Amino acid sequence: MSDTLSPLHDEHVALGAALTSFAGWQMPLRYTSDIAEHTAVRTAAGLFDLSHMGEIGVTGPDAGRFLDYALVGNISGLRVLGARYTMICAEDGGVIDDLIVYRDADDTFLVVANASNHDTVLAAFAERTAGFDVAVEDRSPQTALIAVQGPRALEILRATEGLAEAGHDAGTLKYYAAIPMTFEGNPVFVARTGYTGEDGFEFFLDAALAPALWRAFLAAGQPFGLVPAGLSARDSLRLEAGMPLYGNELDRRTTPHDAGLGRVVKLDKVDDEGNPLPFVGRAALEGRSQSEPARVLVGLEGLGRRAARHGYPVRFSTAADAPTVGTVTSGAPSPTLGHPVAMAYVTPEVSAPGTELAVDVRGRNEPVRVVPLPFYRRPR
Q1: CA nearest 76: which of 107, 100, 99?
Q2: From start to end of 130-275, where are the E strands?
C-alpha cells in the first residue's frame, strides 16, 4: 500500500525536500542540511509539517469523564483552551501512546496521537466508550497541522498576512494553552506547544487551507530567519530537549514510571463523592508507583566523538569484558552542545548523575557520563 501524502506534499516537492516514508506517510526528512535546520530552530525559527499526526475529536456530555477513564491523566479538570500531556495505557500499565489533549469547549476535546499509533488509539477508544455518552471522531483526514518553532516564532505569527488573533493575544498565551485564530477568515486552532524544546506554536486547520498558510509563514518568516525543517531536525531537537519518542523511550513494555514520567499518572482522580476513579491500567500503575524500578531512563553525555544510536548496549565500563547495564533508546551528535548525547535505560545502580559508563558503538566501547535530562533548556 502506498504512503499517504500530506496536504503540503506539493510544497515540499517545490522546496526540494528529501522525502521519506514515515508511519505510512511521505514526509520531508530535510530540505537543506540537518544541522542547518536544527540550528535555525534554536536561533531563529523552523517551519514543520506535522500533518501526519492523528487528530481525534471526543465530544458529548461524558467526554471529560470518558477521557478520565480511558487515559491516565485528570482530563476532566483541564480548563477550556488548555492542553495536557498524558498517556493511554493497557491494563498492565504498558504505554499504548503518549498524547496531547486539548479542551476546545466544556464537552469537546481534541486528542493528538502519534502517527504510528493513530489506528491503535482509535481502536482503544472504541473499546472504552461503553457506558459513556460520548462520540469519538477521526478528524485526521480533514486536518492539517503546521508548527512554527523557535525564539522568533511569536514575531512570525504576528507578521503573517491573513492570520488574525480573533480577539485573543498570542503574546500572553501560556505554554500548554490554546486560542482560536483565523486565517483568511477561516478558523485555526492555535496552541503554544511543540516538540523542540523551544518556544513555538502549532496550528490546526482545514487541510485545504494548509498550503496557503504554509506559504504565508515562509514569506513572513524570511526576515526573521525562518526555514522549513524536516523530521531529522525534529528528532535531534527533541532529543536535546529530553523528550521521549514512542517506539524508543516508550512502548507497550514500558510504564510511564519506567520513563520517569510517573507524574502524568493521576492516582488521585476521584468522583464527586471522593471515591477513587477507575481508569484503564490503574491497578498495575498503582503497584508500579510503590515499587523500586528495574531500570531507569537517563541522559548520557558522550565523552568521545562517536555517537550512540538506538539499540546500542550500555556497558559498565570501557573494558572489553565489561557487563551490559542497559540499552540506548535514542542517540545522536548534538549540534547545539557540540558532543554526542543519548538517552538510555540502565540499571538503578549506575543511574546517578556523574557515573561514567560506556556504549558499544559498533564493537568499540565509547566512554559516556550519566547526566540529568534534558540536555538543553532554552534561555528564558
Answers
A1: 107
A2: 135-138, 143-149, 163-164, 178-183, 186-191, 200-206, 226-228
Distances (CA, A) of 303 to 4, 67, 116, 277: 41, 44, 34, 47
Q: Is the peptide bond before 211 cis (omega within 30 degrees of 0)?
A: no
- Which H or E element spans position 244? none
DSSP H or E run through 33 = none
Q: What is the mean pLDDT of each run of 10 residues along the chain (380 residues)?
A: 93 98 97 98 98 98 97 97 98 98 97 98 98 98 98 98 91 96 97 98 98 98 98 98 98 96 94 87 94 95 97 97 98 98 98 98 97 94
- Would you kindly state where each structural domain of the chain is located, as residue ranges? 4-52+142-240, 296-371
DSSP character for 198?
Answer: S
Q: Is residue 41 a contact partner of residue 233, using CB atoms and an 8 Å limit?
A: yes
Residue 34's φ and ψ, nearest 5 degrees, are: -60, -45
296-371 belongs to CATH 2.40.30.110: yes
Q: Which cell numbers hold the place of 377?
A: 533548556
CATH superfamily of 4-52+142-240: Probable tRNA modification gtpase trme; domain 1 (3.30.1360.120)
| CB 247 within 8 Å of CB 259 | no
